[in-house]
Amino acid sequence: MARPLRIDIENGLYHVTSRGWERRVIVRNDADCQHWLELLDRVAVRCGWRVFAWVLMTNHFHLYLRTPEPNLSRGMHDLNSGYASAFNRRHRRCGALYQGRFKAVLVEDESHSLELTRYLHLNPVRAMMVDAPEQHAWSSYGTYLGRCENPVWLDCLAVLGQFGKQTSRARVAYRGFVESGIDRADCSPLAAAAGGVLLGSEGWVEQWRQRLAEQPDFPAIPGQRQLAWRPTVEDVVQAVCHEFDVHRTELVARRRRGNDGRLAAIYLCRRLTDESVGTIGDYFGGVSTPAISKAVQRAEIRRSQDRAWERQLKRLMEGIRSSGQSDTKQLL
Question: Taking every pair of C-alpha atoms in the chain, what is the biggest distance, in angstroms?
Fold first, then answer.
Protein backbone atom coordinates (compact mmCIF):
# COMPACT_ATOMS: atom_id res chain seq x y z
CA MET A 1 0.00 0.00 0.00
CA ALA A 2 1.35 3.45 -0.93
CA ARG A 3 2.17 5.56 2.09
CA PRO A 4 0.92 9.15 2.37
CA LEU A 5 3.60 11.80 2.10
CA ARG A 6 4.70 12.87 5.55
CA ILE A 7 6.51 16.15 6.28
CA ASP A 8 7.61 16.03 9.92
CA ILE A 9 9.29 19.32 10.89
CA GLU A 10 10.04 21.50 13.87
CA ASN A 11 7.31 24.06 14.59
CA GLY A 12 5.08 22.46 11.97
CA LEU A 13 1.41 23.42 11.73
CA TYR A 14 -0.83 20.54 10.67
CA HIS A 15 -4.33 19.35 10.01
CA VAL A 16 -4.33 15.65 10.89
CA THR A 17 -6.98 12.99 10.40
CA SER A 18 -7.31 9.23 10.91
CA ARG A 19 -10.21 7.19 9.62
CA GLY A 20 -11.55 3.80 10.67
CA TRP A 21 -10.83 0.74 8.56
CA GLU A 22 -13.35 0.64 5.69
CA ARG A 23 -14.96 3.68 7.35
CA ARG A 24 -16.07 1.53 10.29
CA VAL A 25 -16.60 3.00 13.75
CA ILE A 26 -13.63 3.75 15.99
CA VAL A 27 -15.82 4.66 19.00
CA ARG A 28 -18.88 2.76 20.17
CA ASN A 29 -19.81 4.65 23.31
CA ASP A 30 -18.88 7.54 25.57
CA ALA A 31 -16.34 5.39 27.41
CA ASP A 32 -14.41 4.98 24.15
CA CYS A 33 -14.59 8.71 23.51
CA GLN A 34 -13.35 9.50 26.98
CA HIS A 35 -10.44 7.09 26.68
CA TRP A 36 -9.42 8.58 23.31
CA LEU A 37 -9.47 12.07 24.82
CA GLU A 38 -7.38 10.91 27.77
CA LEU A 39 -4.82 9.46 25.39
CA LEU A 40 -4.76 12.70 23.38
CA ASP A 41 -4.15 14.59 26.62
CA ARG A 42 -1.25 12.29 27.50
CA VAL A 43 0.36 12.44 24.05
CA ALA A 44 -0.10 16.20 23.61
CA VAL A 45 1.50 16.93 26.98
CA ARG A 46 4.40 14.53 26.43
CA CYS A 47 5.09 15.83 22.90
CA GLY A 48 4.53 19.49 23.78
CA TRP A 49 1.85 19.89 21.11
CA ARG A 50 -0.27 23.05 20.88
CA VAL A 51 -3.66 21.79 19.74
CA PHE A 52 -5.93 24.49 18.34
CA ALA A 53 -8.98 22.30 17.67
CA TRP A 54 -10.09 18.68 17.71
CA VAL A 55 -13.19 16.66 16.94
CA LEU A 56 -13.87 12.97 17.47
CA MET A 57 -16.48 11.41 15.19
CA THR A 58 -17.84 7.88 15.09
CA ASN A 59 -15.44 6.66 12.39
CA HIS A 60 -12.65 9.26 12.28
CA PHE A 61 -11.11 12.22 14.04
CA HIS A 62 -9.49 15.55 13.17
CA LEU A 63 -6.74 17.51 14.90
CA TYR A 64 -5.40 20.96 14.11
CA LEU A 65 -2.11 21.46 15.93
CA ARG A 66 1.42 22.79 16.02
CA THR A 67 4.44 20.64 16.86
CA PRO A 68 7.32 22.61 18.46
CA GLU A 69 9.49 19.52 17.91
CA PRO A 70 9.48 17.29 14.79
CA ASN A 71 7.48 14.60 16.55
CA LEU A 72 4.15 14.40 14.74
CA SER A 73 4.70 10.85 13.52
CA ARG A 74 5.87 9.60 16.91
CA GLY A 75 2.97 11.23 18.74
CA MET A 76 0.37 9.99 16.27
CA HIS A 77 1.78 6.48 16.48
CA ASP A 78 1.41 6.56 20.27
CA LEU A 79 -2.13 7.93 20.04
CA ASN A 80 -3.41 5.58 17.36
CA SER A 81 -1.67 2.39 18.43
CA GLY A 82 -2.47 2.97 22.09
CA TYR A 83 -6.12 3.61 21.40
CA ALA A 84 -6.47 0.73 18.91
CA SER A 85 -4.99 -1.75 21.38
CA ALA A 86 -7.29 -0.62 24.19
CA PHE A 87 -10.34 -0.57 21.87
CA ASN A 88 -9.65 -4.14 20.73
CA ARG A 89 -9.29 -5.34 24.31
CA ARG A 90 -12.48 -3.64 25.50
CA HIS A 91 -14.57 -4.91 22.61
CA ARG A 92 -12.89 -8.31 22.22
CA ARG A 93 -11.88 -7.78 18.64
CA CYS A 94 -8.64 -8.12 16.68
CA GLY A 95 -7.17 -6.61 13.56
CA ALA A 96 -6.59 -3.11 12.29
CA LEU A 97 -8.79 -0.32 13.60
CA TYR A 98 -7.60 2.51 11.35
CA GLN A 99 -7.47 2.76 7.56
CA GLY A 100 -3.70 2.81 7.14
CA ARG A 101 -1.55 5.56 8.58
CA PHE A 102 -2.80 8.98 9.55
CA LYS A 103 -2.96 11.76 6.96
CA ALA A 104 -1.47 15.16 7.60
CA VAL A 105 -1.69 18.47 5.72
CA LEU A 106 1.15 20.89 6.43
CA VAL A 107 -0.29 24.42 6.81
CA GLU A 108 1.71 27.54 5.99
CA ASP A 109 0.68 29.70 8.94
CA GLU A 110 -2.10 30.50 11.40
CA SER A 111 -3.92 32.71 8.91
CA HIS A 112 -5.83 29.52 8.06
CA SER A 113 -6.88 28.92 11.68
CA LEU A 114 -10.36 30.40 11.50
CA GLU A 115 -11.42 28.38 8.48
CA LEU A 116 -9.78 25.18 9.69
CA THR A 117 -11.20 25.30 13.22
CA ARG A 118 -14.64 26.09 11.85
CA TYR A 119 -14.33 23.17 9.45
CA LEU A 120 -13.45 20.82 12.34
CA HIS A 121 -16.21 22.10 14.61
CA LEU A 122 -18.81 21.75 11.85
CA ASN A 123 -17.88 18.13 11.11
CA PRO A 124 -20.77 16.73 13.19
CA VAL A 125 -23.20 19.06 11.41
CA ARG A 126 -21.85 18.07 8.01
CA ALA A 127 -22.29 14.40 8.96
CA MET A 128 -25.89 15.18 10.00
CA MET A 129 -25.23 13.88 13.51
CA VAL A 130 -26.44 17.14 15.10
CA ASP A 131 -28.13 20.35 14.04
CA ALA A 132 -25.65 22.66 15.80
CA PRO A 133 -21.96 22.11 16.62
CA GLU A 134 -22.39 22.64 20.38
CA GLN A 135 -24.69 19.60 20.47
CA HIS A 136 -21.71 17.33 19.78
CA ALA A 137 -19.94 16.64 23.09
CA TRP A 138 -16.66 15.32 21.68
CA SER A 139 -14.95 18.34 20.19
CA SER A 140 -13.13 21.45 21.32
CA TYR A 141 -16.10 23.67 20.43
CA GLY A 142 -17.50 23.59 23.97
CA THR A 143 -14.19 24.90 25.24
CA TYR A 144 -14.21 27.67 22.66
CA LEU A 145 -17.62 28.73 24.02
CA GLY A 146 -16.33 28.62 27.61
CA ARG A 147 -18.58 25.71 28.59
CA CYS A 148 -15.84 23.10 29.15
CA GLU A 149 -12.59 23.02 31.05
CA ASN A 150 -9.58 24.06 28.97
CA PRO A 151 -6.75 21.48 29.06
CA VAL A 152 -3.22 22.86 29.11
CA TRP A 153 -2.50 21.65 25.58
CA LEU A 154 -5.57 23.25 23.94
CA ASP A 155 -4.86 26.80 22.77
CA CYS A 156 -8.27 28.33 22.04
CA LEU A 157 -7.09 31.85 22.78
CA ALA A 158 -4.72 31.87 19.81
CA VAL A 159 -7.76 31.56 17.54
CA LEU A 160 -10.22 33.59 19.61
CA GLY A 161 -7.68 36.40 19.77
CA GLN A 162 -8.34 37.11 16.12
CA PHE A 163 -11.74 38.48 17.20
CA GLY A 164 -10.38 40.85 19.83
CA LYS A 165 -8.63 40.99 23.20
CA GLN A 166 -11.74 40.56 25.36
CA THR A 167 -12.33 36.82 25.59
CA SER A 168 -16.07 36.96 26.28
CA ARG A 169 -16.73 39.05 23.18
CA ALA A 170 -14.34 36.94 21.14
CA ARG A 171 -16.30 33.81 22.09
CA VAL A 172 -19.55 35.36 20.88
CA ALA A 173 -17.93 36.52 17.65
CA TYR A 174 -16.35 33.12 17.04
CA ARG A 175 -19.66 31.36 17.58
CA GLY A 176 -21.27 33.64 15.03
CA PHE A 177 -18.44 32.92 12.61
CA VAL A 178 -18.87 29.15 13.00
CA GLU A 179 -22.66 29.28 12.69
CA SER A 180 -22.38 31.38 9.54
CA GLY A 181 -20.78 28.36 7.90
CA ILE A 182 -23.53 25.87 8.70
CA ASP A 183 -25.36 26.46 5.42
CA ARG A 184 -22.14 25.73 3.54
CA ALA A 185 -20.71 23.09 5.84
CA ASP A 186 -19.59 21.00 2.87
CA CYS A 187 -17.01 23.62 1.89
CA SER A 188 -13.61 22.35 3.01
CA PRO A 189 -10.56 24.65 3.17
CA LEU A 190 -8.49 21.49 2.72
CA ALA A 191 -9.70 21.19 -0.87
CA ALA A 192 -7.11 23.83 -1.75
CA ALA A 193 -4.22 21.75 -0.36
CA ALA A 194 -1.66 21.04 -3.10
CA GLY A 195 -1.31 17.31 -3.53
CA GLY A 196 -3.50 16.92 -0.48
CA VAL A 197 -0.54 17.74 1.80
CA LEU A 198 0.37 21.46 1.49
CA LEU A 199 -2.03 24.29 2.33
CA GLY A 200 -0.70 27.77 1.76
CA SER A 201 0.24 30.45 -0.75
CA GLU A 202 1.56 29.58 -4.21
CA GLY A 203 5.04 30.81 -3.32
CA TRP A 204 5.20 28.75 -0.13
CA VAL A 205 3.96 25.62 -1.90
CA GLU A 206 6.57 26.14 -4.61
CA GLN A 207 9.29 26.37 -1.97
CA TRP A 208 8.21 23.02 -0.57
CA ARG A 209 8.05 21.49 -4.04
CA GLN A 210 11.67 22.47 -4.53
CA ARG A 211 12.65 21.14 -1.10
CA LEU A 212 11.07 17.80 -1.92
CA ALA A 213 12.96 17.67 -5.21
CA GLU A 214 16.20 17.51 -3.19
CA GLN A 215 15.07 14.42 -1.29
CA PRO A 216 15.52 10.79 -2.42
CA ASP A 217 12.59 9.55 -4.47
CA PHE A 218 10.69 6.83 -2.60
CA PRO A 219 8.31 4.87 -4.90
CA ALA A 220 6.12 3.97 -1.90
CA ILE A 221 5.34 7.67 -1.38
CA PRO A 222 3.75 8.84 -4.66
CA GLY A 223 2.85 12.25 -3.23
CA GLN A 224 6.53 13.12 -3.07
CA ARG A 225 6.94 12.84 -6.83
CA GLN A 226 3.68 14.69 -7.42
CA LEU A 227 4.79 17.67 -5.33
CA ALA A 228 8.48 17.72 -6.15
CA TRP A 229 9.70 20.91 -7.81
CA ARG A 230 9.77 21.03 -11.58
CA PRO A 231 11.32 23.76 -13.75
CA THR A 232 9.20 25.75 -16.15
CA VAL A 233 9.74 25.79 -19.91
CA GLU A 234 11.23 29.26 -19.51
CA ASP A 235 13.72 27.95 -16.90
CA VAL A 236 14.89 25.36 -19.41
CA VAL A 237 15.14 27.82 -22.29
CA GLN A 238 17.19 30.28 -20.23
CA ALA A 239 19.62 27.54 -19.21
CA VAL A 240 20.00 26.31 -22.80
CA CYS A 241 20.56 29.87 -24.08
CA HIS A 242 23.40 30.26 -21.57
CA GLU A 243 24.92 26.86 -22.36
CA PHE A 244 24.86 27.31 -26.14
CA ASP A 245 25.43 31.08 -26.06
CA VAL A 246 22.41 31.84 -28.25
CA HIS A 247 19.46 34.21 -28.07
CA ARG A 248 16.06 32.89 -27.06
CA THR A 249 14.67 33.45 -30.56
CA GLU A 250 17.21 30.93 -31.90
CA LEU A 251 15.47 28.25 -29.85
CA VAL A 252 11.76 28.99 -30.05
CA ALA A 253 11.46 29.90 -33.75
CA ARG A 254 10.97 27.04 -36.19
CA ARG A 255 14.12 26.33 -38.20
CA ARG A 256 15.67 23.56 -40.22
CA ARG A 257 17.50 20.68 -38.57
CA GLY A 258 20.96 21.15 -37.09
CA ASN A 259 19.94 23.50 -34.28
CA ASP A 260 21.45 21.64 -31.31
CA GLY A 261 20.27 24.18 -28.78
CA ARG A 262 16.66 23.91 -29.94
CA LEU A 263 16.82 20.10 -29.86
CA ALA A 264 18.27 20.18 -26.34
CA ALA A 265 15.61 22.64 -25.17
CA ILE A 266 12.73 20.56 -26.55
CA TYR A 267 14.18 17.37 -25.06
CA LEU A 268 14.78 18.87 -21.62
CA CYS A 269 11.33 20.51 -21.54
CA ARG A 270 9.80 17.09 -22.14
CA ARG A 271 12.04 15.38 -19.57
CA LEU A 272 12.03 17.95 -16.76
CA THR A 273 8.85 20.03 -16.88
CA ASP A 274 5.22 19.21 -16.15
CA GLU A 275 4.03 20.61 -19.46
CA SER A 276 2.20 18.46 -22.02
CA VAL A 277 3.62 17.66 -25.45
CA GLY A 278 1.07 19.99 -27.02
CA THR A 279 2.01 22.91 -24.78
CA ILE A 280 5.71 22.39 -25.51
CA GLY A 281 4.97 22.27 -29.23
CA ASP A 282 3.07 25.58 -29.03
CA TYR A 283 5.96 27.20 -27.15
CA PHE A 284 8.44 26.18 -29.85
CA GLY A 285 6.56 27.75 -32.75
CA GLY A 286 3.51 25.57 -33.16
CA VAL A 287 5.30 22.25 -33.65
CA SER A 288 2.98 19.24 -33.90
CA THR A 289 2.80 16.61 -31.18
CA PRO A 290 4.36 13.90 -33.43
CA ALA A 291 7.22 16.26 -34.31
CA ILE A 292 7.97 16.92 -30.63
CA SER A 293 7.93 13.18 -29.93
CA LYS A 294 10.31 12.54 -32.83
CA ALA A 295 12.66 15.29 -31.60
CA VAL A 296 12.76 13.71 -28.15
CA GLN A 297 13.46 10.33 -29.72
CA ARG A 298 16.34 11.80 -31.80
CA ALA A 299 17.83 13.33 -28.67
CA GLU A 300 17.62 10.02 -26.80
CA ILE A 301 19.35 8.16 -29.64
CA ARG A 302 22.06 10.80 -29.81
CA ARG A 303 22.60 10.55 -26.04
CA SER A 304 23.38 6.85 -26.43
CA GLN A 305 25.84 7.46 -29.29
CA ASP A 306 27.48 10.84 -28.59
CA ARG A 307 29.33 11.11 -25.28
CA ALA A 308 29.91 14.84 -25.63
CA TRP A 309 26.18 15.40 -26.19
CA GLU A 310 25.39 13.19 -23.20
CA ARG A 311 27.75 15.20 -20.96
CA GLN A 312 26.28 18.48 -22.19
CA LEU A 313 22.72 17.39 -21.44
CA LYS A 314 23.71 16.13 -17.99
CA ARG A 315 25.43 19.43 -17.27
CA LEU A 316 22.31 21.29 -18.31
CA MET A 317 20.00 19.14 -16.16
CA GLU A 318 22.22 19.50 -13.11
CA GLY A 319 22.44 23.24 -13.64
CA ILE A 320 18.67 23.64 -13.94
CA ARG A 321 18.02 21.59 -10.79
CA SER A 322 20.72 23.30 -8.73
CA SER A 323 19.42 26.70 -9.82
CA GLY A 324 15.96 25.79 -8.53
CA GLN A 325 17.37 24.52 -5.24
CA SER A 326 19.48 27.66 -4.83
CA ASP A 327 16.41 29.85 -5.32
CA THR A 328 14.61 27.84 -2.66
CA LYS A 329 17.35 28.32 -0.06
CA GLN A 330 17.32 32.07 -0.65
CA LEU A 331 13.56 32.16 -0.02
CA LEU A 332 13.54 30.00 3.11
Answer: 77
